[in-house]
Specification:
The protein is α/β, with parallel strands linked by helices and 1300 residues long. Strands 36-34-32-31-30-40-38-37 form an eight-stranded parallel sheet. Strands 49, 50, 51, 52, 53, 54, 55 and 56 form an eight-stranded mixed sheet that branches. Strands 2-1-4-5-6-3-7 form a seven-stranded mixed sheet, with helices on both faces. Strand 15 and strand 16 form a beta hairpin. The longest helix has 24 residues, at 911-934. Helix content is 24%, strand content 26%. The chain is globular. The model is unreliable at 336-350 and 352-356 (pLDDT under 50).
């Protein structure tokens, strides 16, 4: 029966006519009504309605289900509006909603084809699988249409009313309900009764903030205010003003698209509608969304009084202003209301006794907007090159077939396409090619280039040879800087160009080929030409090079100009410079200088006086100047345009400084991971997106591993404020007798300095990654680099000698994992290592968790700044949904193989759980690792390995972002930025686990790497996350932290006696706009749980079997030595980097192999955890428990069987592992615990886990469902586990350099 009359909440549907009629038909059919046949007309009326609805809204598939779903997602009732954005709610209303959803589930389950049979037609079959005539919708955009169609399928598949309700609640949480939930943007209108009505806008431009180039400072202010608003923090009304066409309106659209999923909606209001604002606010103030009332192009003429309505709304009356509404406006006027000079003269207004008050009333409107953001037009483009160019991009003939350049042989699918499909150590090129490729084309030289100097420019390529009209022009062998060939004189007309590109092993020194500039491990060893590709014409007297040497202290910039003259003559050099990416324009006076030129090379130095309006460049304000250098001689004009920034990047003791301010480098490692193309982007826009993502997670520094990206990366880093470290293409050793390698590296270095040197982001250069060899030779190289270009800092390499060499004189800073050898971990400057490189994998895995320890002892061993090298490296289980993203030149056979291996042990249904558990735990480990560095006074910084996945060298899936720099959904940028930012509030704790008889004594500290002292108070709040415990404490401590320091500013002290049940607490720290969090656990100090009625044993001996036969309960804690072959070691932190690679390295070095596990996984709602509150993954309370455990290999159990506490294994091995698991055995019950409870009994967490286990075993809820005989259990406990053949992965670093 269609029981619509029994619905309590879901009634009075706006489009419910079809529903009522269909219910009548269903009831008639179920009751076998004699007049059913007479209702055929009613049925066709319904069918028509469903088809018309599909046409209006774009529905396809089962139109009946789509229609029902359409009703449910649009019905605004007490339940749906309570759930919108927030999700599930508590209370009796859930029972009423469940009743209604039961009614609707019956409607979904009704088989309409029975009506076909009743009426002798086939209409319902068509309606059940309907294909629309087009994808367009008149009423919805495709995004909303698709969501409704997808939800209709989900609801139809629901197996129970509870599942049906859960799916609806999730939809309400994700998208909302009704027009306000489904649509992003609205306008104000009136209905037929002239009542104010909020009307959806169904077609809006999908603008992204990243698409707006050149407005970073205003965009960031807008983002910060909006983000605070949608996340419930204090925010202000916002006015965007400035030049026309600068992206103000587009920024509003971009903000909407970015935060729609977090509940943001926009209502556009026009000036003549301001009198309707109170009615609009009344309709939205009690909804769960956040509303921006948006006014575009806002301004008022002197005769208009609508601004008074707006002021009244902004200021509010007696009623409290709603917390879910802000007003955003854009205007080309700074003050919104037109003002005249006569307004300011009281004597000119004969009728107004207080005319200045009238002026102030008009002008005060702008001050009602708490945030005012200026958008000025970037005007760098006023400088244009005067060099003529012929674009060479397009179709070319190659020795492998026709192709497009710029591009690679991989992208053009040249070659036979044969490739392996079984490689697990990296992504696989689907069109690999190594060797010589010749590219040919006829090019037309125009008349206007006749008689001029011509060069052929290839921005990035591999060793090349050029022929023009069959004559050899030359060969170039470098790989970082462009290949620039001076061409012979070419007459106007057609000329044949042939370019040979060689990416074979013999084309560069063998040592280069393991670097990330060449290897297939991350990018590909591509063949082709990338980036700018053209022939350029200049006079024969021309500008060769312009280098800018800024001095912030002197407020001057020295300009080095290199000129080549083909005769002795005079000329005029003109300098023009201005800022171009900042709100505060700084236009310098043009400088002109007459110069005498001799034939050949000429070097000229000029000095730009930047004046008192000079703007500096840093991560906080990356102001760029565009410099246009023009040379005029009798031959004509030439010019070079370059960006520069006024910045001094230096060192002071063991810290880095930027323009005199101390900074802390919060870095990420970059190894050229771009899976779609196999090479680094050649455009600024793509790199800006990369850096904006990184900065959203708090990153301010990039270290490139044995490669240097193209110029676009530096240009983007300039704009975004990223400190950049380039490296020469070497991962190996340097020796005096390797002349080919040495010449190659030095050539790369000097060309890179000349080509990239003006970029203010280019702050550091290293010789390579994890080098060995002749230190004196390396030191001589650095001396030469400094003499050539003193704008950068130089290092001998990153983590040379794996850190065992300590601080070495001659370099400006030290990038290392340790500062030489020493006792224990005293020289370490990162918390995690491979087992081959540090005992038990380092500090984080092998010392009791705390938040007080730091690297002070190690830093004391270095006289210069230390950067922690490649920190983290915590593996995260893959999210195999990522596979569909690989649509480019690399195929993820590795990930496909890892995914398919899961089936062997029946783990394929746990992919998402594995991913979430390991990911969230890895975030906690990254947080702990980063905070070790932040607590260390004087540390220079760190570079993570990595923010993103590294799909080479064994497939190291160590990122919180995937290989595409997209979020994995395990942590938000805001949360991560809480512990990775210029200012970070820190808690200093001796442990994470406490007895309730202890007094909590937590130090409170702050880091301050902003550009001024920090004086905002530090607020703290400590509260219980456990439902069964109510506990809240909060306070505030004054703070004053000098710039560039980390300092303790206070203490948090509290008794814990009122916590009488086990509880997880959350400590939240806030200062200014910065925040951080800590979890800690408190357990009641009570008598240990009695072992009565429970037999505890180490093996399934005769006594144990006897008790089982008698229905007894057994707690089996196996002796670790006895089950060594059937278990793996107790590793707390996620396995380091990649199991296959370091397993082989450890075995080859004769050292311990890591246990290889990633995290615990459990159902935190299981009865066991009532006495041991936890999350679904490992956290700090589990440290001692896991370290004293040997997770058991349960591959021999049924695939469906899962342990109570599972241990997630690495992707290479994929064992089903258990730390705690239960069986019904014979007549009794067995709980197997793989942690040595006796060894940890003295710890708060160890004692509590023992109590929790015993309490659970005594309860009626201890009722295992997996049944075994004692013989079967014994077989599982003793059977030899099949060993897997895990293929090792080569690593260039020599782990035998460490002292024994």
């Amino acid at each position: 029966m269609a029981r619509l009359n029994e619905c309590i909440l879901y009634r009075n549907f706006e489009h419910g006519e079809i529903l009522d009629k269909m219910a009548e038909l269903m009831n008639a059919w179920e009751q076998k009504a004699p007049d059913l046949k007479e209702k055929e007309g009613l049925f066709f009326e319904c069918a028509n309605g469903l088809v018309e609805t599909a046409g209006s809204y774009g529905f396809s598939g089962n139109l009946w289900h789509c229609y029902l779903t359409f009703l449910l997602v649009n019905n605004e009732n007490a339940f749906s509006t309570a759930c919108e954005i927030r999700g599930a709610v508590n209370g009796s209303i859930n029972e009423l909603a469940l009743n209604d959803f039961g009614v609707f589930k019956e409607l979904y389950d009704f088989d309409l084809t029975v009506l076909d049979e009743a009426f002798g037609i086939s209409c319902c079959k068509v309606l059940g699988d309907y294909t629309n005539t087009g994808s367009n919708s008149k009423m919805f955009n495709s995004r909303i249409r698709d969501r409704i169609c997808d939800l209709s399928k989900t609801l139809a598949a629901a197996e129970s009313t509870e599942e049906f309700m859960k799916d609806m609640v999730q939809f309400y949480k994700d998208f909302g309900v009704g027009k306000l939930g489904l649509h992003k943007a609205f306008r104000v209108g009136h209905d037929e009764n002239d009542n104010v009505e909020i009307q959806p806008i169904t077609r809006i431009a999908h603008v992204k903030l990243e698409d707006l180039v050149g407005y970073e400072i205003p965009k960031q202010k807008l983002i910060e205010n909006t983000e605070a608003f949608v996340r419930g923090r204090k925010a202000n009304n916002c006015l965007l003003f400035g030049d026309a066409g600068t992206g103000k309106s587009s920024s509003i659209k971009g903000i909407l698209n970015r935060y729609y999923d977090e509940g943001l909606r926009i209502i556009e209001v026009y000036k003549h509608q301001f009198q309707d604002l109170n009615d609009v606010i009344a309709q939205i103030k009690n909804r769960n969304y956040k509303f921006i009332i948006y006014m575009d192009d806002l301004s008022f003429e002197e005769f208009e009084i609508e601004y008074k309505y707006l002021k009244a709304v902004i200021e509010g009356g007696l009623e409290k202003k709603p917390d879910n509404i802000l007003i955003y406006a854009t205007s080309n006027r700074r003050h919104l209301v037109r003002e005249k000079s006569s307004d300011k003269l009281e004597i000119m207004d004969d009728d107004d006794l207080h005319s200045s008050d009238t002026v102030q009333e008009k002008l005060s409107l702008v001050y009602r907007f708490g945030v005012r953001i200026y958008y000025g037009a970037p005007s760098k483009k006023e400088f244009q090159t005067i060099r003529e160019r012929i674009d060479l991009s397009g179709n070319w003939n190659s020795s492998l077939g026709n192709c497009t350049l710029p591009g690679t042989t991989d992208e053009n699918k040249l070659g036979d396409g044969r490739h392996p499909t079984n490689v697990t150590s990296q992504l696989t090129r689907t069109y690999p090619y190594s060797g010589i490729v010749e590219y040919e084309k006829d090019v037309e030289i125009p008349v206007q280039m006749e008689g001029k100097r011509l060069i052929l420019f290839m921005e990035r390529t591999k060793p090349s040879t050029l022929w023009i009209d069959g004559d050899s022009v030359g060969t170039l062998g470098h790989i970082y800087a462009p290949h620039c060939y001076s061409l012979p004189a070419l007459a106007p007309g057609s000329h044949h160009i042939k370019i040979r590109i060689d990416n074979s092993p013999s084309s560069v020194p063998a040592e280069i080929q393991s670097s990330h500039a060449w290897t297939d491990g991350t990018q590909t060893n591509w063949n082709g030409i990338l980036g700018d590709f053209y022939i350029e014409a200049t006079p024969h007297t021309y500008l060769e090079q312009v280098q800018v040497y800024p001095s912030v202290k002197e407020k001057k910039a020295r300009i080095h100009v290199n000129i080549y003259s083909d005769s002795e003559q005079s000329g005029v050099v003109t300098l023009s410079a201005k800022t171009w990416n900042t709100q505060q324009e700084h236009l310098l006076l043009d400088m002109e200088k007459q110069v005498g030129l001799s034939k050949g090379e000429n070097k000229i130095e000029l000095t730009l006086d930047m004046g008192n309006r000079m703007q500096t460049w840093s991560e906080f304000h990356p102001t760029l100047y565009a410099l246009n250098v023009t040379l005029a001689t009798n031959e004509g004009k030439d010019n070079i345009i370059t960006d520069f920034g006024m910045r001094d990047f230096a060192t002071e003791g063991t810290q880095f400084t930027i323009n005199g301010f101390k900074t802390f480098l919060r870095g990420k490692h970059d190894a050229c991971v771009f899976p779609l193309t196999g090479y680094a982007p050649m455009d600024v826009k793509s790199w800006r997106k990369v850096f904006q993502t990184a900065k959203s997670y708090g990153i301010n520094y990039y270290r490139c591993h044995s490669y240097t990206p193209p110029r676009a990366a530096f240009a983007a880093a300039d704009i975004e404020g990223i400190y950049f470290q380039a490296e020469l293409p070497l991962w190996g050793s340097i020796s005096p007798d390797n002349h080919r390698l040495n010449d190659f590296l030095l050539n790369e270095a000097y060309m890179t300095l000349d080509y990239m040197g003006n970029h203010p982001s280019f702050t550091m250069l290293g010789l390579g990654n994890e080098l060995g060899g002749d230190v004196d030779l390396m030191r001589n190289w650095l001396d030469g680099f400094r003499k050539h270009d003193n704008r950068h800092l130089y290092s001998l390499g990153s983590n040379n000698f794996l850190g065992w060499g300590g601080a070495i004189d001659g370099e400006d800073y030290l990038t290392t994992c340790r500062v030489g050898g020493g006792e224990g971990y005293t020289t370490h400057v990162r918390s995690s290592f491979a087992f081959v490189d540090a005992e038990k994998g380092g500090i984080l895995n092998n010392t009791r968790p705390n938040t007080r320890a730091d690297y002070t002892a190690a830093i004391a061993k270095s006289p210069r700044p230390v950067i922690s090298h490649e920190t983290g490296q915590f593996q995260i289980y893959p999210d195999y949904k990522e596979l569909e993203k690989y649509t480019g030149v690399l195929h993820p056979y590795n990930l496909e193989i890892f995914r398919d291996r899961l089936n062997e042990n029946g783990l394929q249904n746990q992919i998402d759980a594995f991913h979430q558990a390991t990911g969230r735990f890895a975030v906690e480990c990254y947080k702990a690792d980063i905070e070790y560095g932040l607590r260390t006074a004087g540390l220079g910084g760190f570079q993570m390995l990595d923010l993103q996945d590294f799909p080479g060298q064994g497939s190291a899936l160590v990122g919180i972002l995937d290989a595409f720099m997209d979020s994995k959904g395990i942590v938000t940028p805001e949360t991560f930025r809480g512990f990775c930012a210029p200012v970070v509030p820190l808690a200093l704790m001796d442990t994470y686990c406490y007895s309730n008889k202890e007094e909590l004594n937590i130090g409170l500290a702050l880091t301050n790497y902003e550009e001024q002292p920090w004086s905002d108070a530090l607020c703290w709040r400590l509260e219980s996350l456990s439902d069964s415990v109510t506990f809240v404490r909060e306070g505030k401590v004054p703070a004053h932290v000098e710039q560039g320091k980390v300092m303790q500013v206070g203490e948090l002290k509290s008794t814990l006696t009122e916590i009488d049940k086990p509880a997880q607490l959350r400590l939240t720290l806030t200062t200014g706009n910065y925040h951080n969090y800590y979890n800690l656990w408190v357990y009641p100090d009570r008598t240990p749980e009695s072992e009565a009625d429970i037999f505890i044993c180490q093996s399934l001996d005769d006594e144990a079997r006897k008790r089982l036969s008698q229905g007894g309960k057994i707690l089996l804690i196996p002796d670790h030595k006895a089950i060594e072959e059937q278990s793996v070691g107790g590793l707390f932190t996620p396995d380091y980097w990649n199991y296959a690679m370091f397993k082989s390295i450890s075995e080859n070095a004769g050292r311990e192999v890591s246990p290889g596990t990633l995290s615990l996984l459990m159902d935190e709602k299981h009865p066991l955890f009532r006495q041991f509150p936890t999350e679904c993954h490992s956290n700090w309370q589990w440290w001692s428990i896991v370290r004293h455990a040997r997770p058991f290999i349960l591959n021999a159990t049924r695939h469906e069987y899962k342990p109570l506490i599972q241990v997630v294994d690495n992707v290479e091995r994929n064992h089903k592992l258990g730390l705690l698991f239960e069986f019904a055995v014979d007549n009794g019950k067995v709980l197997v615990c793989m942690s040595n409870l006796e060894a940890i009994r003295h710890t708060p967490e160890g004692g509590q886990l023992r109590n929790a286990i015993l309490s659970y075993m005594k309860s009626a809820e201890f009722s295992p469902t997996e049944t075994l005989t004692s013989q079967q259990l014994q077989h599982i406990l003793t059977t030899e586990v099949r060993k897997q053949d895990i293929v090792g992965v080569k690593n260039q670093s020599d782990y035998d350099v460490q002292p024994e």
